[in-house]
């Protein structure tokens, strides 16, 4: 019996050792974060890996900017995690190691700031507008948001929990339209994919997603989208292991060069 | 029985139990206990972090019961589909020699290692409105599967079927084929022998496989959300509801997870005594 207890004790000790390892890692990274913080935007001091959590809609433009960054700071590496802003926010507050968070709505950024996980105030760097994505050639001749309420059409929306869904809901409510989609997709790319695969006739997504999909979908502008523009905030995270790298990346995103890449992708940057 | 006997009996029993634990070598016991903790601690954490005070409020929403009902319905339907096509497939793999049998078996187990989301995409390519088979279903019968409850059943059956086939095939291989041969010498056709001899013989294996498939179907997420989408009451099963709740309301997600956990534990415990005892 005593031996069993001792064995159990050994097991617990092993677990404690494991957790001790991980917590010492954390303290190491946070101390490097605080030491790297002052004068962090100074070029030349940037090194190592910068981990960026970004909204799914930023995938194409941020991937391009990541390559630009790596070229400008040899030896660095930018790794991305793209996804629904809400699930990214949940991972960050849950302790996922990241240096920068760029979300698709102030609401999702607020989850992270409220948890005290950002350092400094998030800044809005782009805005994005909704657009209707239809099949190539627009065979159903969709011309307005109202056309989507036709019950013969299979329309997908983003779930209201994610920013693109919230924006779509806002636009629909503002124009008093009642739209029943066939599915509430978990993020904007999933909604777009359903149209690309021709499983859905239309989706309400961001203009940037329509542009990124090339000729696999066709975009239809609708005036109500002006009333539901999403602002994208970006911030360095409190637990950033590479604070200097994080600041340099945010600087790049907000620079003229970064703005050009984002405008080309369909974002509004003014 | 005297008073002395009564006193001796429990002590002897206790000593035997002690000897059993003491006989376990430490290099086995320690990792085993870590393994146990590894599996149980996350579940305990779920219980610890459950917002018990607001639980009734979180679970009285109509959407929760809608999602739970849909989950149970679809998992059961997917298990039924798996049984109808999976048992014959297992029999074929276990009892019929044909060229490429090893390859077929490998293909059957492929969905086990495939990420479910990839399975969902593959299903869209095959059975979607524009898929290689789905296109004909749509043209001829006006039948489209994505975004329907039937689509959920198909997605769940796709990931659950291999579990059933493997379990049943294993039982078939362990079962003595001489019973079937004896039935054949007595004039039974191969199908009659299967129905009257083999099936009763492997019933426990089929049941165990069905439970496994049901449990896998109940927890299915990736293939379902990819192939069938997410719409409350039609395709939003519990795992999808949990995932989306996690985006905006982690407390609700915890509460939903708890319900799913309780249902699975209740069902598995209920079936365990009947079918899944190790002995």
From TrEMBL, chain A:
Using the record, list the residue span of the signal peptide; answer none if the entry has no such feature: 1-22
The record's keywords, sorted A to Z, are:
Metal-binding, Signal
Coiled-coil stretches are none
Q: Name one Pfam family in it.
A: SBP_bac_11
Q: Which PROSITE patterns match?
A: PROKAR_LIPOPROTEIN (PS51257)
Please name the InterPro entries in this protein's record: ModA, ModA/WtpA
**The keyword Cytoplasm belongs to this UniProt entry's keyword annotation:** no
Tell me which family the UniProt entry assigns to this protein. Answer: Belongs to the bacterial solute-binding protein ModA family.
This protein is called Molybdate transport system substrate-binding protein
- In its UniProt entry, the species of origin is given as Streptomyces griseoviridis
TrEMBL record, chain B:
**What subcellular compartments does it reside in?**
Cell membrane
Keywords in alphabetical order: Cell membrane, Membrane, Molybdenum, Transmembrane, Transmembrane helix, Transport
Protein topology in the membrane: Multi-pass membrane protein
**Where would I find the ABC transmembrane type-1 domain in this sequence?**
68-269
Coiled coil feature spans: none
Annotated transmembrane regions = 21-48, 68-94, 106-127, 147-168, 197-215, 252-271
Signal peptide span per the entry?
A: none
- InterPro entries documented for this protein: MetI-like, MetI-like_sf, ModB_ABC, NifC_ABC_porter
Q: Please give the Pfam families that the UniProt record associates with this protein.
A: BPD_transp_1 (PF00528)
Chief location of this protein within or outside the cell: membrane
Q: Which NCBIfam families match?
A: Mo_ABC_porter, modB_ABC
- Family listed: Belongs to the binding-protein-dependent transport system permease family. CysTW subfamily.
Q: What's its job?
A: Part of the binding-protein-dependent transport system for molybdenum; probably responsible for the translocation of the substrate across the membrane.
What is the name of the protein in this document? Molybdenum transport system permease
Q: Source species, please?
A: Streptomyces griseoviridis
